Amino acid sequence: MEIYKDPVTGYEIRRYANGTEMALMKLDPAGFVDGSKGEVHTGNIIIGDKDGRHFDVAAQSTQILHPCISRDHKWLCADRISYLGTTIQEGVVLFERATGKQKFIASTGSCKTGADHQHPSFNRKGDQILFSNPDENGNAQVCVIDLHQVWKDW
Question: Of 109, 130, 106, nearest to 119 (Cα)?
Protein backbone atom coordinates (compact mmCIF):
# COMPACT_ATOMS: atom_id res chain seq x y z
CA MET A 1 0.00 0.00 0.00
CA GLU A 2 1.19 3.49 -0.84
CA ILE A 3 -0.20 6.64 0.78
CA TYR A 4 0.08 10.09 -0.73
CA LYS A 5 -1.63 13.44 -0.33
CA ASP A 6 -3.74 14.63 -3.26
CA PRO A 7 -2.23 17.96 -4.40
CA VAL A 8 -5.63 19.41 -5.35
CA THR A 9 -7.95 18.29 -2.55
CA GLY A 10 -5.38 17.74 0.17
CA TYR A 11 -6.97 14.38 1.04
CA GLU A 12 -4.97 11.30 1.87
CA ILE A 13 -5.12 8.74 -0.96
CA ARG A 14 -4.27 5.08 -0.41
CA ARG A 15 -3.10 2.92 -3.27
CA TYR A 16 -3.48 -0.83 -2.95
CA ALA A 17 -1.53 -2.63 -5.64
CA ASN A 18 -1.49 -6.32 -6.63
CA GLY A 19 1.39 -6.06 -9.09
CA THR A 20 -0.56 -5.20 -12.24
CA GLU A 21 -3.33 -2.97 -10.94
CA MET A 22 -4.00 -0.66 -8.05
CA ALA A 23 -7.24 0.29 -6.32
CA LEU A 24 -7.85 3.86 -5.19
CA MET A 25 -10.77 5.60 -3.49
CA LYS A 26 -12.38 8.83 -4.59
CA LEU A 27 -15.12 10.38 -2.46
CA ASP A 28 -17.85 12.51 -3.95
CA PRO A 29 -18.48 15.07 -2.64
CA ALA A 30 -15.20 15.69 -0.87
CA GLY A 31 -15.56 17.02 2.66
CA PHE A 32 -18.42 17.10 5.14
CA VAL A 33 -21.98 16.07 4.26
CA ASP A 34 -25.09 16.51 6.42
CA GLY A 35 -26.28 13.01 7.30
CA SER A 36 -29.42 14.42 8.97
CA LYS A 37 -30.48 15.61 5.50
CA GLY A 38 -29.82 12.22 3.93
CA GLU A 39 -26.56 13.32 2.33
CA VAL A 40 -23.93 10.61 1.89
CA HIS A 41 -20.53 10.22 0.29
CA THR A 42 -20.45 8.14 -2.88
CA GLY A 43 -17.23 6.19 -2.87
CA ASN A 44 -15.74 5.31 -6.22
CA ILE A 45 -13.25 2.46 -6.30
CA ILE A 46 -10.97 3.37 -9.16
CA ILE A 47 -8.68 0.76 -10.71
CA GLY A 48 -5.49 1.97 -12.32
CA ASP A 49 -2.83 0.17 -14.29
CA LYS A 50 0.53 -0.37 -12.64
CA ASP A 51 2.01 2.65 -14.45
CA GLY A 52 -0.76 4.95 -13.26
CA ARG A 53 -1.70 6.03 -16.79
CA HIS A 54 -5.17 4.49 -17.21
CA PHE A 55 -7.98 4.55 -14.63
CA ASP A 56 -11.56 3.23 -14.63
CA VAL A 57 -14.32 3.29 -12.02
CA ALA A 58 -14.73 -0.35 -11.00
CA ALA A 59 -17.40 0.03 -8.30
CA GLN A 60 -19.50 2.60 -6.49
CA SER A 61 -21.19 2.55 -3.12
CA THR A 62 -21.91 4.85 -0.21
CA GLN A 63 -19.54 5.48 2.67
CA ILE A 64 -16.81 3.05 1.52
CA LEU A 65 -13.06 3.29 2.01
CA HIS A 66 -9.92 1.12 1.93
CA PRO A 67 -10.44 -1.04 -1.19
CA CYS A 68 -8.59 -4.28 -1.89
CA ILE A 69 -8.29 -6.34 -5.11
CA SER A 70 -8.36 -10.14 -5.11
CA ARG A 71 -5.32 -11.86 -6.65
CA ASP A 72 -7.46 -13.20 -9.51
CA HIS A 73 -8.70 -9.62 -10.19
CA LYS A 74 -12.36 -10.74 -10.09
CA TRP A 75 -13.33 -9.26 -6.72
CA LEU A 76 -12.98 -6.08 -4.70
CA CYS A 77 -13.73 -5.50 -1.05
CA ALA A 78 -13.89 -2.32 1.00
CA ASP A 79 -14.95 -1.18 4.43
CA ARG A 80 -18.17 0.76 4.88
CA ILE A 81 -17.95 3.23 7.74
CA SER A 82 -19.61 6.24 9.30
CA TYR A 83 -17.62 9.39 8.63
CA LEU A 84 -17.78 13.08 7.82
CA GLY A 85 -21.32 13.61 9.10
CA THR A 86 -23.06 10.38 8.04
CA THR A 87 -23.82 7.46 10.38
CA ILE A 88 -24.54 4.01 8.91
CA GLN A 89 -24.23 0.30 9.77
CA GLU A 90 -20.50 -0.32 9.47
CA GLY A 91 -18.90 -3.41 7.97
CA VAL A 92 -17.41 -4.98 4.85
CA VAL A 93 -18.72 -4.87 1.26
CA LEU A 94 -17.81 -7.34 -1.51
CA PHE A 95 -17.93 -6.29 -5.19
CA GLU A 96 -17.88 -8.49 -8.29
CA ARG A 97 -15.90 -6.58 -10.91
CA ALA A 98 -17.45 -8.21 -14.00
CA THR A 99 -21.04 -7.35 -13.06
CA GLY A 100 -20.68 -4.47 -10.60
CA LYS A 101 -22.83 -6.42 -8.14
CA GLN A 102 -22.14 -5.65 -4.49
CA LYS A 103 -23.14 -7.22 -1.21
CA PHE A 104 -22.78 -6.13 2.40
CA ILE A 105 -21.18 -9.26 3.86
CA ALA A 106 -20.21 -8.44 7.45
CA SER A 107 -21.48 -5.93 9.98
CA THR A 108 -19.07 -4.66 12.61
CA GLY A 109 -18.90 -2.37 15.58
CA SER A 110 -18.50 1.36 15.07
CA CYS A 111 -15.04 2.75 14.38
CA LYS A 112 -13.73 5.16 17.00
CA THR A 113 -10.45 6.12 15.30
CA GLY A 114 -8.78 5.69 11.93
CA ALA A 115 -6.73 2.85 13.39
CA ASP A 116 -9.76 0.64 14.01
CA HIS A 117 -11.33 0.74 10.53
CA GLN A 118 -12.09 -2.70 9.11
CA HIS A 119 -9.35 -2.51 6.41
CA PRO A 120 -10.49 -5.70 4.63
CA SER A 121 -8.03 -7.80 2.67
CA PHE A 122 -8.24 -11.03 0.69
CA ASN A 123 -6.16 -14.03 1.67
CA ARG A 124 -3.76 -15.31 -1.00
CA LYS A 125 -6.19 -17.99 -2.19
CA GLY A 126 -8.91 -15.34 -2.56
CA ASP A 127 -11.59 -17.31 -0.73
CA GLN A 128 -11.50 -15.42 2.57
CA ILE A 129 -11.57 -11.79 3.63
CA LEU A 130 -9.73 -10.76 6.76
CA PHE A 131 -10.77 -7.57 8.55
CA SER A 132 -10.80 -5.93 11.95
CA ASN A 133 -13.92 -5.51 14.05
CA PRO A 134 -13.72 -2.75 16.67
CA ASP A 135 -15.30 -3.62 20.02
CA GLU A 136 -17.14 -1.14 22.24
CA ASN A 137 -13.80 0.19 23.54
CA GLY A 138 -12.34 0.68 20.08
CA ASN A 139 -10.03 -2.34 20.30
CA ALA A 140 -9.72 -4.08 16.94
CA GLN A 141 -10.41 -7.81 16.77
CA VAL A 142 -9.20 -9.78 13.74
CA CYS A 143 -12.05 -11.53 11.87
CA VAL A 144 -12.31 -13.79 8.82
CA ILE A 145 -15.27 -14.41 6.52
CA ASP A 146 -15.29 -17.49 4.30
CA LEU A 147 -16.40 -16.34 0.85
CA HIS A 148 -17.72 -19.78 -0.11
CA GLN A 149 -20.74 -19.10 2.13
CA VAL A 150 -21.23 -15.69 0.47
CA TRP A 151 -20.89 -17.04 -3.08
CA LYS A 152 -23.59 -19.70 -2.40
CA ASP A 153 -26.11 -16.85 -2.13
CA TRP A 154 -24.53 -14.61 -4.74
Answer: 130
- Percent of the chain exceeding pLDDT 70 equals 77
CA distance linking residue 44 with residue 94, whole number of Å: 14
Predicted TM-score of the model (pTM): 0.79
CATH of 2-152, one of 2.60.40.1120, 3.40.50.9100, 2.130.10.10, 2.60.120.1440: 2.130.10.10
| 98 touches 60 (CB < 8 A) | no
Instruction: Give the angle subtended at the CA of 87 by the CAs of 81 and 90, to the nearest 5°.
Output: 35
| Contact of 6 with 13, CB cutoff 8 Å | yes
